[in-house]
Specification:
The protein has helices spanning 23-39, 43-51, 84-91, 124-134, 139-153, 168-182, 199-212, 225-231, 250-264, 337-343; strands spanning 8-20, 57-69, 73-77, 99-104, 108-111, 187-191, 217-221, 234-239, 242-247, 267-269, 273-282, 285-287, 292-295, 299-308, 316-323, 328-334, 347-357, 363-373, 378-392, 404-406, 410-414. The protein is α/β, with parallel strands linked by helices and 415 residues long. A hairpin with a 2-residue loop joins strand 8 and strand 9.
Length: 415
């Protein structure tokens, strides 16, 4: 291994960035901070304001630290609003950190927004030359790469049309081609860009990334878990601007991320019906851990408590198993006459559903719970993302991979 193979290209040390939700306060804070920065007014007070939240402010990133070497691909994951794009803008120099230090070595190719760096009035060809000039390339250097850029971007027919007439897919193709082919970067930053455009071009981009990753450091933000798993040598999971997990065990980080995803799925309905104390009982043993692994031949039971605040006519309760890709596979209705008669009155109910052997294809799943009733089947409770679990075992002995409806033994006991 040469020294360049182990070369640190990005070093982030205790970086924090905050924003203000109130526009007027944001302008005032920005003016104060700029004046203090220029004139070094009361440096202690300035330091305190940079390291503490003022009224209306929140941390977009807080105390973020990591290193990235040449030949590494960092998958940056987290739910929307976790601070991923803010961190990329800090790395690319688009915004300045409030605290901490960022060290960058080498040329950066960044694609953080569609058509970033393009002038909509100029043609695609003109934008290539403008971007190249900004990057310090000579006309001859740009000329040498121009045809390769146009061919890779697949925009030959529109290269002399204004960029404002381009579709989002064309913008992405040209932007990616300029960022990679023109600059030949040491560091490549991609923010969910490959989610736009057709499959063939995304595949071509990913193949190019695979070819250049040994010579560069790549940071990839994507909600496509398969892409993150395929290319990342390590993963950072961001949660509310803080690094929750940094690991080279990519699957471990992805599993934690999926737990966050199912917890954030919408909870709806009224406040007149709530559920609580949801848990699995597997082979007669109560399981309280947050992420459960179940063999396809395990005997599974789900227990939970329903609290009904008022009398509900024609009440029914539905529970469904959903794959984490959104597909609803198994649906169970607690709608026998006995259960309906019990559920119509207000009170607390202990509920139990015997699922037996799940026989699900190995994968990751979670539970959807719905309570409805009265006219037009009014939804009193919709709770999705509860009881996340993973089915493990022999795929050949599992058969449920498409929507199914089952009748299972259920029990409701008023307490």
């Amino acid at each position: 291994m040469t020294d360049s193979d182990n070369e640190v290209l990005i070093r982030v040390n205790n970086v924090s960035k905050k924003f203000c939700r109130d526009f007027k306060k944001s302008l005032w804070y920005g003016l104060k901070d700029t004046a203090s920065d220029i004139f070094s007014i009361n440096s202690k007070e300035q330091e305190r304001e940079l390291t503490h939240l003022r009224e209306g402010e929140f941390w977009a990133n807080q105390n973020v630290s990591f290193e990235l070497k040449r030949g590494e691909c960092l998958g940056l994951i987290g739910h929307n609003g976790a601070g991923k794009t803010t961190l990329l803008k800090l790395l690319n120099g688009l915004i300045k950190p409030d605290t901490g230090r960022i060290e960058i070595k080498g040329k950066i190719g960044a694609l953080i927004a569609l058509g970033s760096g393009f002038n909509p009035i100029l043609t695609g060809r003109e934008n290539i030359y403008v971007n190249g000039s900004i990057l310090g390339l000579s006309k001859k250097e740009i000329d040498d790469k121009l045809e390769d850029i146009i061919e890779f971007a697949e925009v030959a027919d529109a290269i002399d049309s204004p960029v404002r007439t381009y579709s989002s897919g064309m913008n992405v193709r040209l932007g990616f081609s300029v960022a990679v082919k023109l600059l030949n970067p040491d560091i490549l930053i991609l923010d969910e860009i490959l989610a736009v455009g057709d499959v063939s071009f995304s595949t071509k981009c990913l193949n190019l990334i695979r070819d250049i990753v040994t010579e560069t450091a790549v940071i990839m933000v994507s909600h496509n878990i398969q892409t993150v798993s395929q290319f990342s040598t390590k993963v950072i999971l961001l949660n509310k601007g803080i690094i929750e997990l940094e690991t080279k065990e990519v699957n471990k980080a992805i599993e934690r991320y999926l737990i966050h995803c199912v917890r954030r799925i919408q909870i709806g309905g009224t406040k007149e019906v709530v559920s609580e104390k949801e848990m699995f009982i597997i082979n007669g043993k109560m399981i309280n851990q947050e992420y459960v692994k179940i063999n396809s031949n395990d005997k599974v039971q789900i227990n939970f408590r329903i609290i009904i605040e008022k009398k509900i006519h024609n009440a029914y309760c539905k529970l469904a198993i959903k794959a984490n890709n959104g597909t609803q596979l198994c649906t169970y209705f607690f709608n026998s006459k006995e259960n309906t008669d019990k559920l119509k009155d207000s009170g607390h109910y202990d509920c139990k559903l015997d699922l037996g052997n799940l026989n699900l294809v190995p994968g990751k799943y979670h539970i959807l719970l719905i309570f409805a009733g009265d006219k037009n089947e009014k939804i009193y409770l919709r709770k999705e993302g509860i009881l996340p679990f993973q089915v493990i075992g022999d795929e050949e002995k599992s058969y449920i991979s498409s929507p199914f409806r089952f009748n299972r033994t259920s029990h409701f006991k008023k307490i």
